[in-house]
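Support case: user asked for a sample of complex input and structure output to validate their parser. Sending the pair below.
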Amino acid sequence: MSRDMTRKPKRAKAETISFNGKRPTINDVARLARVSKKTVSRIINKSPFVKEKTRERVEALIKEIGYTPDPMARGLASKRSFLVGLIYDQPNPQYVIDMQQGILDVIRGSGFELLVHPCRRQAPDFLQNVRAFVERQKLAGVVLPPSVSEDDALVEILQEFGCPYVRIASVPLDEAEHSIVTHDAEGAQEAAEHLAGLGHTRIAHVSGPDTFRSAHERRAGFVKGLKAHKLKLERELDIKAAYTFQSGVDAGRRLMALSDPPTAIFCGNDEMAAGVCQAVREAGYEIGKHVSVVGFDDSPLASRLWPALTTVVLPIRLMGRMASTRLLGESLIHEPPQEETLGEVHPKLVVRGSTGAARA
Amino acid sequence: MSRDMTRKPKRAKAETISFNGKRPTINDVARLARVSKKTVSRIINKSPFVKEKTRERVEALIKEIGYTPDPMARGLASKRSFLVGLIYDQPNPQYVIDMQQGILDVIRGSGFELLVHPCRRQAPDFLQNVRAFVERQKLAGVVLPPSVSEDDALVEILQEFGCPYVRIASVPLDEAEHSIVTHDAEGAQEAAEHLAGLGHTRIAHVSGPDTFRSAHERRAGFVKGLKAHKLKLERELDIKAAYTFQSGVDAGRRLMALSDPPTAIFCGNDEMAAGVCQAVREAGYEIGKHVSVVGFDDSPLASRLWPALTTVVLPIRLMGRMASTRLLGESLIHEPPQEETLGEVHPKLVVRGSTGAARA
DNA sequence: GCGTCGTATGATACCGGTGTCAACGACACG
DNA sequence: CGTGTCGTTGACACCGGTATCATACGACGC
C-alpha cells in the first residue's frame, strides 16, 4: 500500500502552472506535496499547528506552481466571504473615492476585495436592502462612514448577522473597537479661532442639517472656539442649511442682506462655503477682503475656487486604511504602520486666500 | 457550569423563515416543494424546461420562505461569480461615482454586486495585478471606462479568461457588442461652434495628455468646429496640458502672456478650465467678459465656479447603466429601458456664465 | 401494438475549499 | 513499561449550489 512513486516533478516555471488545463487547486498542491488537503488548508490560513518544515515545503510548492485559493470555495465552506463592504450615503464624491482608496490600500494583496454599496438612508426600503446585502454576501467586514455610521438600526442588523463593522464618526458611537473618531469639533474650533485671531468679531455659521452628527459637532466646536475669544454666535448669524451648494447660496444671501452683515462666515462644508462665496460676491463684496469664508472637508472645490478656500481637512484615505485595518487585523499580509491601528484622527485647518484680516 | 449564553436573540422582524436556525437553502425548497434540487436550480436560472405548473408552485414557495440562492455556492459550482468589476484609472471622482451608481442602478436587485478596482495604468505591476483580479474573482463582467478602456493588453487578459467586458470610449475600439461610444468629438465641436458663434476668432485650446484618447478626440472635434466657421487653431494657441488643475493654470498663464492673447479658450476638461480661469483672472481679465472659457465634463466644479463654467456634459450614469446592461443582459430581473440597450451616447453643451460675446 | 421522440424531472457526482474528529508518534510521568 | 499529553496530520463529511446523464411519460408515426 505504501508504495510511493518517489518521482520529483521539478517545475522550473515561476508562472502559474496549468493542471489539466486549469489553474491548480488545493488538491494539486496536496498531491504534489504529499500532504493532505487539510494541511494545505492550514497553511493557507496560517494555522500555528503545522510543523515548520512542512510549512516551508508546501509554501515553496505553492509559490512554484502559483496556487491561489479560490475565494468562492473558501467562502462557501467557511461561511465568510473575502469581501469588505463600504456602505455609504455620501454626496461628496471625493470623500467616497478617498475612502475606497484607503480601504483598498490595506486589503489589496491580501485576497480581499471591496464591494461598494451606496444607499439613501431615508429610502423606505433602506434597512431591508442593507439586510439582504449583508446576509447574502457574508461580508468579512463593513465600513460605515458618516452618515450611515450614525444609524443604529443598521448596526443592529450587522450585529445580528455577526458581521464585523467599523463606524467612522465625529464622536465615539460605539465601543472603541468599532470606532474611528474624527473629532470634527476640534477642526471647527480651530476655524473659529483662526477667524477670531484675524480680528473678526461678527462671525456667522452656516451649518449642515440636523440629520448629520457632524453638523452638530462642527457647530459646537465652532461655538467653543468663539467662546475662547470671548465671542458668541449671534442668533441671526446662526443659519441652518443642508450641506448643499444651493443651500449655501441661500444662506449667504440671507446673511449679506442683514443690516449689519458678518465679516466672516464658517460653513459646515465646502459645498455650502462655495455657495456662500457666490452670494457674497453677488452682494458686491470681495471674498477674503470684505468677507472671510471658511469651509470644511478640503474638497477639490476648495483649492479651485478663487480665491482658494480656507478649510478644514480630514485624512479620509487614512481613515479608510484605519477602518479596514481594524476589520481585518491579522488576516492581512502586511503589518500596518502604527498610525493605522489607532482609532482617532484629528482635523487640520488649511489656510488659503478666502480668509483675511478684519478691516479696521 | 452555568450556560453563559449572553447572546440576545434580537429578531428584528425577520422576513426569511429560519430552517434549523439558518436561512433556507435550495435543499429546503426542494424538500418542501417535493421536487429535486435540480428543478429548483432550473427555476432559479430561468431554464425553459420546467412545466409552468411546477414553476409557479415552487416560485410561490420560494417567495413564501424568503429563499435566495447563495452567490458563493452558485459561483463555486458554475465557475462564474455574481460580481461586476469596475476597473478604472480616473482622477475625476464625480465620474467614478456616477459610473458606479449607473452600474448599480441596473444590477441592484438582480443578485449582482459591484467590485471596484482602481488602478494606475503606468504602474509596473498593473497588468499582473489586474490579471490576478479577474482570474480569481471570475467576474460576471467588467466595465472599462476611459482610460483603461484603451488598454489593449488589459482587454486581451479579459478575453483570455473569457471574462465579458464593455469598453467605454470616445470612439469605437472594439466590436459594437463590447463598446459604449461617447463621441467626445461632437461635444468639442459644439463648443467650438458656440464660441465662434459668439464672434470669437482668436480661440485657444488646452488639451489633455496624449495618453488619453479623449484628449485627441476633443481636440480633433474642436478643430473641426473651428473649421466649420472658417477658423483654424493657431499653433501658439494650441497647448498641451495634463488634465490637471495646475497644468491648466500654467497653460492659462502662457496664453495670457502672449502679445495677442486669445479671447476664448476651450479646455479638454473642467479641471484645466478651472486652472485657466484662475490664470486669466491673475492676468487681470474677467471671465466671460474679456475671455470666454469652456470646459468639458460638467464636474461639480463647473457649476460652483464663479462665473459658472460653460462646459460639455456626458451622461455618465446612463453610460454606466448601458455598460452593465450590455454585460448582464437577460440575467437581469427588470427589462431595461430601450435607451439603455443602445451603445452610443452624445455629449451636450451646457452654456453658463463663463462664455460671452466677443467684444467688438 | 411498438419503437421513437421531445419534454420534464431526478439521482448523483462534482466545484474547491473548511470543520470534525480520530490517529499517530514522541515524550514525560507515574 | 503502561499511560496520558501534546503537537501534527489525515480521512471524510459537508457547505449550497450546478452539470451530466438517466429515466419517466405522453404523443406520434407506422
